[in-house]
Amino acid sequence: MSAAEIEDVAAGWLIRREEPGWTDQDEAEFAAWMKRSMAHKAAYWRLEHGWREADRIPALGDTPSCVEEEEAPGRRRTVFALVGALAASLVLALTGIAMWSPPVPTEPPARYETARGAREAVKLADGSTVELNTATRLRAASGPDAREVWLDEGEAFFDIVHRPDRRFIVHAGPRRIVVLGTRFSVKRSGDDVTVAVVSGRVKVEDSASAESAGAAIVSTGDVAYIRKQNTLVVGSNGDEVNAMTAWREGLLVFDNTPLRTAVAEFNRYSGKPIQVAPDIQQIRIGGSFQTHNADAFLDLLESAYGLHVDRGEDMIELKR
Amino acid sequence: MVDDTQLQIWFCEEVLPLEPSLTRYLRKNWRTEDDVTDLRQDVYEAALNGARRGLPDRTQGYLFTIARNILINRAKRDRIVSFEQVADLESAANVHIDIEGSERHLAARDALRRAQAGMEDLPPRCREVVRLRKVEGMSRLEAAEAMGVGLDTIDRQLRLGIRAMADAMLGGSGRIQREKPQRARRSKSQ
């Protein structure tokens, strides 16, 4: 069999494995095919890897403006900006047309809220579950075509029941996340949105846009960081996703994390904020800690780094 | 024995980033362009079989030694290259690897450039099927409905599209490759 023929069969497996309706029987047949020859494995792994690389790209097509282009020459940038403005006005026009159709009446959205330090799992009407982390507010509504959640603040983990006829959409400020697969976490702080996918795939798009222009597909093990108009998808390494969803186990996981960032994480859970002196903010720390046990974290900093902890009435100061 | 998960990680992170260099090396040292894909596949197969007994310390040297041996064996078997030419094969140690192409993870910007170039090179229908899959997240059935064509068409176009896009992302030409390449005896390029 030629390389091209093997590759074609491998592509067939790759397509079917991505789709709903993949059974244990299918998986067994696939495993048998892979086992038959190292050439099969080489072809499949290569194809899967290359195809996934293409996954991480925001906007396969039209809007280069949403990609980080820090060193882009000014002239090119101007062209992009022009194209962007044209695209934006086109989108506005399209939205205008779309808005003529009467809105579909739906039930008022259900509201869920957690206090600082609390964590709660709720079951939605369709059987999907949402786990709310500390200080989180969200609304959920179910319509005939789509199931929608608005994450107003905080962080939530979604385990979605697959319904091909009804899309599941999470609105997070400047972005909306369209669910293609199943389990993922969304964190929102103002307009900063972070999406970590545990399994399956989601699509992150611009809330202001009616089309899929500027959309990024985020796959298993990937994390999308959205800051303003920029979307950066990094991944293939499940460690980061595990760390980002450790709050579900009541844990905070740090790996080479600046002290300032780590402390900001602890502060999300406690009413008594920790303040870090400027000269030690960049110290790198690692390890996993219980979200509610900032004391253990502080003790470690005291003993391992020789830092001084000053426990006041309303806040804790951390200095050298 | 190295288990499959380790083997796959090694293959994707250490071997595949070398693909542009490997392809260049094969193309330079083999006179028939159409054989390059098959030769590369043989190199990967042999590299994986060897690595199953223990991952090599230096992947690059390991991979190009295998490539060289495969070229020599193939040349002897086909009796199409004189022995002098075989002896001329670049030694594996001297292969030039460009730094950009061998980075483990593509910078987001390079990945975007490759993806866009890959998409542009696809024939229109194939591109649309790939777009529906990647950007809209459609299944084959949904794509068939959206485009008003049969499932067979979607399936065929998607297989071609995935292969071309994977090739583009790995630094190749992203050219569509049909199952039965024509056996034209072109002389090697360059």
TrEMBL record, chain A:
- Could you tell me which residue ranges the FecR N-terminal domain spans? 10-48
Entry keyword annotation includes Transmembrane helix? yes
> Start and end of every Protein FecR C-terminal domain?
252-311
Residue ranges spanning the membrane: these are 79-100
Pfam families per the record? DUF4880, FecR, FecR_C
Give a yes or no for keyword Membrane in this entry: yes
Per its UniProt entry, which superkingdom is the organism in? Bacteria
Question: What InterPro entries does this protein map onto?
Answer: FecR, FecR_C, FecR_N, Ferrdict_sens_TM
Q: Which UniProt keywords apply?
A: Membrane, Transmembrane, Transmembrane helix
Q: Which residues form the FecR protein domain?
A: 111-203
- Stated name of the protein: FecR domain-containing protein
Question: Which organism does this sequence originate in?
Answer: Alteriqipengyuania abyssalis
Automatic annotation (TrEMBL), chain B:
Report the SUPFAM superfamilies cross-referenced here. Answer: Sigma2 domain of RNA polymerase sigma factors, Sigma3 and sigma4 domains of RNA polymerase sigma factors
Q: Where is the RNA polymerase sigma factor 70 region 4 type domain?
A: 116-165
Q: Does the keyword Transcription apply?
A: yes
Q: Which UniProt keywords apply?
A: Sigma factor, Transcription, Transcription regulation
Family matches, as Pfam families: Sigma70_r4_2
Which InterPro entries does the UniProt entry name for this protein?
A: RNA_pol_sigma-70-like, RNA_pol_sigma-70_dom, RNA_pol_sigma70_r4_t2, RNA_pol_sigma_r2, RNA_pol_sigma_r3/r4-like, WH-like_DNA-bd_sf
Tell me which domain of life the UniProt entry assigns to the organism this sequence originates from: Bacteria
**Family indicated by similarity:** Belongs to the sigma-70 factor family. ECF subfamily.
Q: What is this protein called?
A: RNA polymerase sigma factor
- Species per Swiss-Prot/TrEMBL record: Alteriqipengyuania abyssalis
